[in-house]
Amino acid sequence: MEAAAAAAPRPRATGCLTASTAGPQRASRWCPRQPRAASSSSSSSSSSSSGGSPADLGLLRPRLRVSPSSAGRIAGGAPPVRARDSRAECAGGRSSAEHVGVSLEGENRVLEMSSTVPKSSNIFWHDCPVGKTDRQNLLKQKGCVVWITGLSGSGKSTLACTLGRELHTRGKLAYVLDGDNLRHGLNKDLGFAAEDRAENIRRVGEVAKLFADAGLVCIASFISPYRRDRESCRALLSDGSFIEVFLNMSLELCEARDPKGLYKLARAGKIKGFTGIDDPYEAPLNCEIEIKEVDGVCPSPSDMAAQVITYLEDKGFLHE
Prior knowledge:
It comes from Triticum aestivum. By secondary structure, the protein is α/β, with parallel strands linked by helices. Helices cover 32% and strands 18% of the residues. The chain is built from eleven helices and eleven strands. The strands form three sheets. The protein has a five-stranded parallel β-sheet with strand order 8-9-7-10-11, sandwiched between helices. A four-stranded antiparallel β-sheet has the order 3-6-5-4, with no helix packed on it. Strands 1-2 form a two-stranded antiparallel sheet. Strand 5 and strand 6 form a beta hairpin. Helix 5 packs across helix 11 and helix 7 runs parallel beside helix 8. The N terminus is likely disordered.
């Protein structure tokens, strides 16, 4: 009997992994599925010929665990977010596995799925015969990043669009990266917690670097409240082509303008972590251009754009 039992094939377990949010253990558990009766002989033979389900084939299953939502909280039904230390990534660090957060209905926790496949280290840079200098000579301009920073309502987006239009009028190729616009696509999985803000700026910095390498004047318009994040982006362009423009407008002026009504919502407690109200803004220490209010009034968009263009001309970024 023992020999017969040993020779008999083991039943194949099928089911799904779920995570319990009750209790301090927060343990994962396996939920077996009831075997389904074959609908027809053809479907049965098809399953056999294909080699069985992924569970039958013994494929690696992801490990599930539950962690506090601060690791990567999702609000309002947003897509899954990567829960990782974004500031470490700004410094060049990399985690060994990706974590994808999935919101749990009615729970202040996030379900994380850890990849069983580590990141590959066998990655090599591939050089192309046409380089940055070739592209700049073709465009008759020098690629750079004009990084506009300041409080909400200080006029960043207005300046960015005006500057882009003026450069276009002069026959120069420029592209605007706007904070709100990128959160509709590239950064739509990020919120406004400190780690999300850091990852937001990290991604933008990498994209802006590519635009500058292509020979364009990349105009990046972001609150980017943390000095360390902005400096990480500056470090990506070591040739002096990172131009930080600080719109130094007072909180009183920005709040009085409040074009999006965000300050009113923040004062009413309907927005948490709003820069200038209950989250800090770290002003630049050594920006290339600082634009200040005059007698409590923000300068006109054309005047601000002219100031930036003068700098670009003086530094040779708009050479013919």
